[in-house]
Amino acid sequence: MELKAKKEQLLKILQGKIPEDVTLSTVEDCAPYGGDWTRLSGNPLLVFLPKSTEQVALILKSCNDLKIPVIPSGGRTGLSGGAVVTQSEVVLNLSRMNRISPVDILGRTVRVQSGAVTEVVHEHCAKEGLFWPIDLASKGTSEVGGNLSTNAGGVRVIRYGMVRKWVSGLQIVMMNGNVIELNRGLEKNNTGYDLIQLMVGAEGTLAVITEATLKLVRLPQKEQALFFALSSLESIRKLFEKARRGPFEILAFEFFSQRCLTAVETKLNRRSKLESAGEFYVLMEIELGLGQESQVLLEQWLEEVLEADFVKDGLLAQSSVERREIWGLREGITESIALTSEVRKYDTSVAVSNTVGFLKEAEALFGSMKLGADLYVFGHFGDGSPHLNVVKQDTGDHKTFMEDCDRFEKELYPLIKKWGGSASSEHGVGLLKKSWVEMSRSPEEMALFRAIKAAFDPNHLLNPGKIFD
Ligand code: 2HG
Ligand code: ZN
Fold first, then answer.
1. 330 Cβ below 6 A of ligand 1
2. How confident is the prediction for the chain on average, in pLDDT?
3. What is the per-residue pLDDT across 178-192, written as a single tens digit (0 to 9) for each?
C-alpha cells in the first residue's frame, strides 16, 4: 500500500478511538516534531500526542498492522539525531504524558510518566530533600523518556553515574501494542535478564517507554563551586589529581578552553570573574560536610592549590548567585557555539586517565589538517568524556566545511579507537554516529544487537535506521 493510502487507513482506524486533539496532520503542525537540537529534520507523516498508555498502545498496534514506521520522541534535545524523521515516519511524542506521582519516601523512588520534564522532576523531589541525580544543560526541556532512551549523562556522572543507574521500573509498550511492566520498581530481583537495562540506551528502537520508577538520592547538603584558570591540559590533570585527594566529594569536574569562554562571553554576554585568563578553565563542584571544620579544610586545600605552579588563578564562589554565574559559563557553551556558526559535534569517551593524552593528539591532528574551521574543546574531564566541536569559520562555505569535517573524523575515530575509547560517551548514536558504532562494538556484539531488535520489533518499524541499519 502506498504511504498516502496507509495514512488515510490509519486515520480511519483511529477515528473515534482517540480524542481528536491527539492527532496533528497538517504539514505546518507536524513540522516542529520532525527534528531535534541537531537541526536535522524531516516531515512526519502524522504526529500523535497521546495522553495515556492505552492510546500509545492503540497507535503502535495500528501502525504495526499497517507497517507504518514510528519515531518515539519527547523534548527533542538530542544531539545525535535519534528523534529525527528521515522517511516520513509517524512521530509519537510523549510530552503530554507528564504526570509525576508523590515521592515514595520509604522506597526513595518516584513514579513518573515519560513526558515529565527533567527539571520539573527535580523540583518535585526537592520538596522532600531528594534528587534524581541527572543534571544536564538541557534539563529545562529534556524529558525523562528521552533521558532513559539515550542513557543520558550530564555534569554529575563523576559522582552518580549515568541514567541507567537511577531507574528501578519501566512500563513499556511494544510495537504490537503489548503493555509490559518491567521489574515493578523492585530494588532486588534476581530472576533472569535485566530488560530495563536493555531498554535504557536503546534510543527508542525496541519499545516505547511510557512510565518509569526513578531512584532518588538525598540532595547534597552543602554544594560549593570553584573555578580555575590553567595554562595546559597537563595542568588540568594535576588539579584533578589534587581534587581526587581533596577533603570533599567531587560532584562535577568540567573543563573548557579559552575559545569556549570567549564564545560565551561574546554571544551570551556572560563574564568570568577570574582576574587572569588561561588556556583552559575548570569548574569543579563539590559536596562539603556541614560543620565549620570542612570549610576550613576546603580553604586550606584551595590555598595550597593556588600556590601550586599549575594553577594560574582560582576562586571559590561566595554565594549561590556566583555559583550560578560560573555554571552559566559552562552551560552556555553549546548555545553560544550554535549562535556562532555551523558545527559538527564529537562526543568522545576514553578512560579518565587517558583524557589528556587523547586530547593532545586530537588537538594536534586538528591543527595539522589546517581546516577552515576552529576546534572548541570542553566537557566532562572527570568522566573521560570531552566534547570536540568543530565550528566553521566565517569565511568558509558549507560544502567545504562538511568535506573538512568528514576528513577530520576519518582520522579522529581511529584515534579514539587507538586510545581504547568510544564513538559516543553520552549523546547516543542516533543517525550521526551510525557509521562509527562498529568501531566501538565487536561483530559479535553487532550480531546480538540485530537479534535483539528482531525479537522486540520483527517488522523493523520502531525508530528505523537509528543506531544501526
Ligand atoms: C554538554 O556537555 C552537552 O554540555 C552538549 O553534552 C555537548 O554541545 C555539545 O557538544
Ligand atoms: Zn556533555
1. no
2. 97
3. 999 999 999 999 999
Q: Distance of alpha carbon 183 from its chain centroid, rounded? A: 24
C-alpha 387 to ligand 2 mean position (Å) = 7
Contact yes or no for 169/182 (Cβ under 8 A): yes
Which band of pLDDT confidence, cut at 50, 70 and 90, is reported for residue 165? very high
Question: Distance from the CA of 79 to the center of ligand 2, in angstroms?
Answer: 10
Cα(5) to ligand 1 centroid in Å equals 41
246 lines ligand 1 (CB under 6 A): no
> Does pLDDT of 1 surpass 80?
no
- Picking from 117, 344, 153, the residue whose alpha carbon sits closest to that of residue 252 is 153
Identify whether the C-beta of residue 349 lies closer than 8 Å to the C-beta of residue 340: no
Per the CB < 8 A criterion, the answer to whether 437 and 448 are in contact is no
CA of 404 to the centre of ligand 1 (A): 21
Statement to judge: residues 118 and 147 lie in one domain = yes
Does any ligand 1 atom lie closer than 6 A to the CB of residue 379? yes
Considering the domain architecture, whether residues 214 and 234 belong to the same structural domain is answered as no
Residue with cell 512521530: 91
Q: Which residue has the cell 533472569?
A: 192
The answer on 283 and 366 residing in a single domain is: no
Atom from ligand 1 closest to the CA of residue 427: 6
Write out pLDDT tens, residues 241-267: 999 999 999 999 999 999 999 999 999
Convert the pLDDT of each residue in 215-247 to its tens digit.
999 999 899 999 999 999 999 999 999 999 999
Of ligand 1's listed atoms, the one at least distance from the Cα of 389 is: 10
User: How many domains would you assign to the chain?
Assistant: 4
The protein residue whose alpha carbon is closest to atom 6 in ligand 1 is: 154
